Hints:
CATH class of the largest domain: Alpha Beta
Shape: elongated
Coiled coil: 211-238
Keywords: Coiled coil, Signal
Number of domains: 2
InterPro entries: OmpA-like_sf
Protein name: OmpA family protein
Oligomer: single chain
Signal peptide: 1-21
CATH superfamily of the largest domain: OmpA-like domain
Largest sheet: 8 strands, antiparallel, barrel
Amino acid sequence: MRKLNMMLAAGTLLLSASAMAQQKDDFQNYNWFVTGGVHTEALMHTDGYVTATGKIGAGIWLNQWAGLKVEGVFGNTHLLEESRGQVFGAQLTYMAHLYGGNHYRPFNLNGLVGLGFYHHNFGDILKKYSYMNILSGNVGLQAVYNLTPRWSVYLEPGLLIQPKYYDVNNKDKVVPSFYLSAGVSYTFKDMFSKWQKKEKRDRQKVSASEFNRMNDQINAMRKQISALEEELKDAKVVDANQKVILEPMRQMPSVTIQFDIMGSFLSAAELEKLEDIGTWMQDHPNSITIVPFADSQAKDDTVQRVKTARADAIRKVLTEQYGIDTKRILTAKPEEVGYVNKTGQEALIVFMTE
């Protein structure tokens, strides 16, 4: 019976997400964040430069084109030959997404323009003065990798414009130099969200009607299963050890779950889909079949690990967060259900009978 159910379920893999259409994640506006990192100008090898400083700050993304952050800076500087000084200050930075801001991607690229105020402490290293306050400006690119919907790491190379504070005779001369920063950021809301509150209420109403439609389809399928069982018994065409390959049909409801490239990360939008599925399974005895795809047709262990990780990610959410019995969560290989050469960044969840 279970094998026959899977055969019928396999016939609908092209009807992906008719009840829940795919939409892009939206960037979360007015999202506060905190950040910390390190900064150096040591690659310049001039008479004076910042060897290493720490940076701690906070900011807000107003929208994908405008973000502001303020950072406190503290650390050490190189002066003249082997002397050391200290630097303390603050920096205000404007940020804008150049790549990856319109919807979720693991990698983002930001443009930066900043202005800083710094207090350089020399002690008795330089005879004419023991400290100097300066203003500096900088432009840079920030390469960001999103570890989770809220945590990210970044690497930031850039150009710095500042006075020659380390040169007694030319301290008013402005010179360019290169810098490199790296750090981590945490946003207080998910960086990307699929729905606003009103849209989510509307979606919940639509989902309820769609699930009712699924129930009607499942009831109709029970009759089809009984008829097919009788045909198989009479014809004796199915061997117990034979894998049946079917061309995809368009009858049973299914939902598409999207993942990142060659990964198993679930975005906030996909977790909302699983929330609906988990809630529905709590109220109904039906099982589901997960059919995971990979981004490549290569026949190697990496592709198989990606498929397994995607199925496991879905199973983990449904079992741990919604208490669904793992026996109700089946899996099928794409080639077993008619998708021999299909690739993609998704897994299909097919609704089955009890």
